[in-house]
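Problem 12. The chain below contains 466 residues. Write out its predicted structure in token notation.
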Amino acid sequence: MISEQRMASPALTTEEIYLERKLLKHVRDNVHGNIFLEPIFLKFVDTEQFQRLRDLKQLGLTHMVYPGAVHSRFEHSVGVYWLAGKAVDIIKRYQGLELGIEHSDVQTVKLAGLLHDIGHGPFSHTFERQFLPQLLSDPWSHEEMSVKMIDYMVDEHNIDMDPEILKKAKEMITASPDRPLQREKQFLYDIVANGRNGIDVDKFDYIVRDTRACGLGCSFHPDRLMETMQVVGDEICYRAKDYLTIYKLFATRADLHRTVYTHAKVKAIELMVVDALVKADPYLRLTSSIHEPSEFWKLDDSVLKTIETSSGKELKESRDLILRIRRRDIYQFCNEFSVPKDRLEHFKGITPQDIVCSQVTNGITLKEDDVAVCNVKIDLTRGKENPLERIKFFKEYGEKQEKFPIPEDRISHLLPGFYEDMIVRVYSKRPELVGVVSAAFENYQLKTFGRKAQVHETPEKKKRKM
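Solution.
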């Protein structure tokens, strides 16, 4: 039983509830149902910077393969805001007094959820992880841009917000798995972007939202975890009997990566868009806007339409690539293979040069620009580690709780014993070279692994095409 002193602060009066509801903005979401936005958060939502998120598809170019995947970062951000508020409200309801949760803590978590993606670039992670690295040597992240964008929005729109809330919200956004933060009330920093174990409301929203948009089933239900979680030792912990529900979170995420986010045709289209953007950058100066929020907020998915409808000769190569995508003349998938487990630790990724250098003499000389390679890593968020081992559990509710991990040997033997895949996919940029590129790819595997490690043979009809 949960003691009475651990319940939340005194309830609002009927009049206060009426006034509060009167000021709320009601949004109907197709995943979470009714969402209510408070006036302070509407000051951010009703800006051109936040409204820009409507023009960023959550899954980038995935809608080219899954037509229903046209939901935006606007929907996702509002959804994460709602779940972040729900999560902190649940904790406050049962443990608010003992943890010292204040109204400002609730506002901070909600603000972090609302603005965690405000600095995202076009085409989901393609812009950040594939386009920019080809042109820039310094790393760039949408989390860092989100922090800059928040400061810009506050200054530009004269938003009156407690500086301490803004500071903590920005820290919550950048508390990624690679950059965990240690702060007072650390458990609050684990709600939106969990740097400790990867369980956060960002995943809760996009997993349910993305599976629904793509017409896929989802066996993971976040409500169960949220309603039963408890803070023990300044860390959000879960009931031991819910470990399979947590596993479903990571397994569903990995399945989305394999079947949706890194679908072979989705990656082919992404490769073409990246090539088009690289060729267009000297004229559109996309990379010159990535450090200044005042310019960056003007950049969204419509950049493809800008290229496609331009008449300038300088954009012809980019325009032709986008026209090929429209006409479904995309880079041809040749083959793929899964890197053997014993090679994963030192695997550095395959390049077009590796394929070209493995070419079998057949009268046609391949060039690097004829080949595109995609190295796809899929894991359960912790590489080769079992993510469940980083999560802390508790047995039953009570006054004196102890948190503990569940050792791997006590977890169901039906779960996988290996937690990481690296898939290499090779594409031919020209249909008539599919057979030649496929042969070079197979030869590379023989030289590197002593065998062909590919999942399936390239169909003969593709090799003979044109």
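Discussion. The beta strands are 25-29, 33-37, 230-232, 235-239, 332-338, 371-379, 393-394, 420-428. Students who got a different answer should revisit the alignment rule from Section 12.3.
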